[in-house]
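can u do me a favor
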């Protein structure tokens, strides 16, 4: 019930060089559970923004009245990565030794917010549900930890996909839960849900 809403929400997006450079934003109005109306869209060219500083942007909504005020900070991506099994970031013995030294007992209070890293190897899925009329699915896997989200590539026409990807997350809260969700890619439509598992970090 507001024409001047304040959300004050923060989101982290991990931007890699092989992704597109435009941040797309949509503003929606919801009357009830069934009716939604698009109030406008705007776009931010990430490559045009200065790095290592917070940029205050007032973005007019395209073809609609109103504007969106937001703060965007572009900073180097630290600790987060996607790699193949053969180039696993924590697989190098020298790097593992440095990490062990960094998080040893005597250094545990040096930086309270620096808790550690979580590395997840997503190998494959078995006997997935068929979401297409052909009796197959186009599965991809999404990993979420806190407000960090990474995903695998899509394996087309396969109920037993192999991704063989390694995901590395910086841990911000030891009480976070790693959520791993498998979706079926469905073209321009929202992806279909194929399954989910939740793993509390304290159980690892």
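np, heres the sequence
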């Amino acid at each position: 019930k507001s024409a001047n809403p304040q959300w004050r929400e923060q989101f982290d997006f991990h931007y890699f060089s092989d992704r597109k450079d435009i941040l797309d934003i949509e503003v929606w109005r919801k009357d009830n559970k069934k009716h939604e109306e698009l109030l406008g869209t705007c776009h931010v060219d990430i490559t045009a923004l200065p790095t290592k500083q917070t940029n205050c942007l007032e973005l007019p909504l395209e073809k609609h009245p109103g504007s969106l005020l937001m703060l965007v900070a572009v900073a180097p991506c630290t600790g987060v990565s996607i790699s193949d099994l053969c180039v696993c970031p924590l697989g190098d013995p020298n790097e593992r030794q440095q990490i062990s030294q960094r998080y040893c007992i005597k250094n545990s209070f040096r930086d309270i917010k620096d808790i550690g890293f979580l590395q997840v190897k997503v190998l494959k899925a078995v006997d997935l549900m068929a979401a297409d009329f052909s009796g197959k699915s186009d599965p991809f896997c999404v990993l979420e930890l806190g407000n960090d989200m990474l995903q695998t590539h899509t394996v087309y026409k396969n109920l037993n996909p192999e991704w063989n990807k390694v995901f590395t997350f910086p841990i911000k809260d030891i009480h976070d839960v790693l959520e791993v969700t498998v979706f079926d890619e469905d073209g321009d439509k929202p992806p279909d849900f194929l399954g989910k598992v939740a793993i509390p970090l304290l159980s690892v």
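Residues 22-74 form one domain. hope that helps!!
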